[in-house]
Specification:
By secondary structure, the protein is of the alpha+beta class. The protein folds into two domains: 31 residues; 81 residues. The protein is built from two helices and five strands; from the N terminus they run αβαββββ. A five-stranded antiparallel sheet has the order 1-2-3-4-5. A hairpin with a 5-residue loop joins strand 4 and strand 5. The longest helix is centred in the first third of the chain and has 30 residues. The chain starts with a helix and ends with a strand.
Amino acid sequence: MKNLKKLIICFLIVICALSMSSCSGCSRQEETTAGGWTKVEDGTITNEHRELFNKALGTIDGLSYEPIKLLETQVVAGMNYRFLCNEHTSAENAPDTKVIVTIYEDLDGNAKITSVVPTE
């Protein structure tokens, strides 16, 4: 009978240890999701980012965007970039607004703006 109790206790300890180790793996998995956005800690905009931004911008009548900070990147079939930007309009006395500009760069190096969303 004592051996059976010891066996059951050992079995329960092993199950508890396994369940705790699997839970810690779950939290790591949530931090890095395949295809998810990755925050850029320092937000530095490099010359390469500026070139990409200017290539994607092309010509937009009446609006211009000035990148302030690189917020996030996302690996897809190419790369997505999210920039915090000042949006300038050509209208007189119009205030600049802050927007988030998302740019997609394909595998051939072509770039385009996919969204411009005002910050709140």
